[in-house]
Amino acid sequence: MSEIVRSSQEAPEEPDFTATEHVHHPRRTDVDPRAARRAERQVVILFTLSAVFTIAALAAYVLIPVDAGVALPLAGGVGALNLALGLSFGLAILCIGLGVIHWARKLMPGGEVVAQRHELRSSDEERAEAVAAFERGLADSGFAQRPIIRRSLLGALALMPLPLVIILRDLYTAPEGAPSPAEQLSVTIWGEGIRVVSDVAERPIRPEDVPLGGLVSANPANLHDVEEEDGNLNARAKAAILLVRMRPDEIVSEQGEGWSYQGILAFSKICTHVGCPIALYEQRTHHLLCPCHQSTFDLADSGNVVFGPAARRMPQLPITVDEEGFIVAQSDFQEPVGPSFWERG
Predict the structure, then answer these.
(1) Which of 63, 80, 159, 169 could form a Cys-Cys staple with 68, CB 3.0–4.6 A?
(2) Cα dist from 140 to 35, 115, 147, 262, whole Å
């Protein structure tokens, strides 16, 4: 009886969680040199095909007209250039992926590698072991011992970015006789004598409509005429402005005579960082805050940047009043509206 009680009080044995070592079964390429050479040729063929398809993508971009079309079953008419670029460049990427997979499955070692947990900072011995393991893996992969695979892979990877670089040319191409992208970005539909109208009601604005310390969103009066005539919805984005009124003695500096009227200033509504619309105004400091990345502009100091990632001040629109007492622009913006671009001086 005592032995029964004693045995029941003994702690149970802990299970053994030690993982069994993975047994690697030799592949045919491990024991047959001819099979290894055949697998090597297959990998080289895939990498070479990738290079051929990349060159085909370049040739398609140069030779196929942009307006050429082709009819496909179920899909209807599609652009021949887009179809050729998609197929050729997609097959180039596919061949590189298949070649790497085939190389790993047929020629690289298939043994299981177990990495034990260790402290965040390794000892000098462990670092030396890591370097040795890397060198051993490099040798086992055959990257150094199989130059034909290495050269074909490097050749395919070297050609891979070329279609992407060349296709960048198609980001925008100005039609013949049309202004360049830089010229289009540098102007808006504002001009001398164009009235300022409220954003929602679209009513002409008088100076007394802008309260002291207030902020009014506005547009040019000819906005809808331009949109209906040209179908250019970008005009609204470039032409949107903010009217702010402060006491004349609060204006620290201006760009010159005639840029304000009785303390009313007009600035672009588009942030010069990445083009977010701005309408957060601090009346006490006269700061305009962008909600996207917190760029801050001092409207009392010509819209200069006081904080944030923006590198340029807010463009200011020179304003005055016409014979009927409505606020009008004296000219277009003197600098491009919105984010900077390559061609901007």
Answers:
(1) 80
(2) 17, 18, 14, 80
